[in-house]
């Protein structure tokens, strides 16, 4: 279990997976009092670019730029520097990019933050996407290790390269905590309240179980965004997390 004490609100990240900036802005307005961070992913960033980060910052919110960089080290370093200039609080790269890429990403984040006179954002490595299961990791991606071993392998690589944590499913929390310790940040998507549809997620867990197993942050998208009452959906999740 992580020793980092956070309120239920601080742990909750809502994914702004919507196709229009105006819709994102509506959600931010409604949910800002209840949510620790908003996540801007590939869809919204491709639609609106840095304006998507700005609407969150202007509302006093914290921003997770979930752009999952995976390219040669120099290209990733340049993209990381640009996100740091936009003042994001968390950003991520794929662990599969390898050691040199992770090291250059970290250096870029630290140097650019120092240049801006602010503390570096949390730099997180994506391990095995939560939409994959044991069979697809082996047959489609071609990785022979077990899914949990692969997640731990990438978590240790990220830690050795000085990153703050990883994105993984809450199902791997025990193994990650054992390998990387209680302070390592673990961001867990694939969160589904009891009875919710898993959609395209393959490794899911409830909010309460994720926190019980030591998640630092929980990422929730569709269970909130497709609810007729997103505020009620969020407060119900907060109630579940808060009761742990
Ligand atoms: O392994 C990963 C990495 C990132 N994500 C992102 O989290 C959200 C989850 O959304 P839901 O609607 O709650 O499924 C989404 O933005 C993904 O891009 C992930 O799911 N798994």
Total of DSSP H or I helical runs spanning 4+ residues: 12
CATH fold-level assignment: TIM Barrel
* Most strands sheet: 8 strands, parallel, barrel
Strand order of the largest sheet: 1-2-3-4-5-6-7-8
Question: In angstroms, what is the radius of gyration?
Answer: 17 Å
The helicity comes to 40-55%
Oligomer: single chain
Q: Output the structural class.
A: alpha/beta
Q: Judging by the overall fold, what is the CATH architecture?
A: Alpha-Beta Barrel
Bound molecules: the ligand O=c1ccn([C@@H]2O[C@H](COP(=O)(O)O)[C@@H](O)[C@H]2O)c(=O)[nH]1
Which geometry do the CA atoms define?
globular
Average pLDDT number: 97
List the uncertain runs: none
Euclidean distance between termini CA atoms? 12 Å
CATH class: Alpha Beta
What is the strand tally?
8
What's the name of the CATH homologous superfamily?
A: Aldolase class I
Molecular structure report:
This protein has 244 residues and is α/β, with parallel strands linked by helices. The chain has one domain: Aldolase class I (TIM Barrel). The protein is 46% helix and 15% strand. The protein has 12 helices and 8 strands. The protein has helices at 8-11, 21-31, 42-48, 51-58, 73-85, 99-116, 134-139, 147-160, 173-180, 207-212, 222-225, 230-242, and strands at residues 12-15, 37-40, 63-69, 90-94, 122-126, 165-167, 185-188, 217-220. An 8-stranded parallel beta barrel has the order 1-2-3-4-5-6-7-8, surrounded by 5 helices. Strand 4, helix 6 and strand 5 form a beta-alpha-beta unit. The longest helix is centred in the middle third of the chain and has 18 residues, at 99-116.
């Amino acid at each position: 279990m992580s020793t980092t004490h956070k309120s239920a609100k601080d742990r909750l990240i809502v994914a702004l997976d919507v196709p229009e900036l105006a819709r994102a802005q509506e959600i931010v307005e409604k949910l800002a009092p209840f949510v620790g961070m908003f996540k801007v992913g590939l869809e919204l960033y491709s639609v609106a670019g840095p304006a998507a980060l700005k609407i969150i910052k202007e509302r006093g919110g914290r921003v997770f730029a979930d752009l999952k960089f995976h390219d040669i080290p120099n290209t990733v370093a340049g993209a990381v520097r640009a996100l740091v200039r936009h003042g994001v609080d968390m950003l991520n790269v794929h662990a599969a990019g390898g050691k040199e890429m992770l090291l250059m990403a970290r250096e870029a984040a630290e140097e650019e933050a120092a240049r801006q006179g602010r503390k570096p954002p949390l730099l997180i490595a994506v391990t095995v996407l939560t939409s994959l299961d044991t069979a697809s990791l082996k047959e489609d991606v071609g990785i022979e290790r077990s899914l949990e071993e692969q997640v731990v392998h990438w978590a240790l690589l990220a830690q050795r390269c000085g990153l703050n944590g990883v994105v993984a499913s809450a199902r791997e929390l025990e193994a990650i905590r054992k390998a990387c310790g209680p302070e390592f940040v673990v961001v867990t998507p694939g969160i589904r309240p009891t009875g919710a549809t898993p959609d395209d997620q393959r490794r899911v867990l409830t909010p309460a179980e994720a926190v019980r197993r030591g998640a630092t942050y929980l990422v929730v998208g569709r269970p909130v965004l497709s609810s007729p009452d997103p505020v009620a959906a969020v407060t119900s999740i907060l109630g579940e997390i808060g009761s742990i």
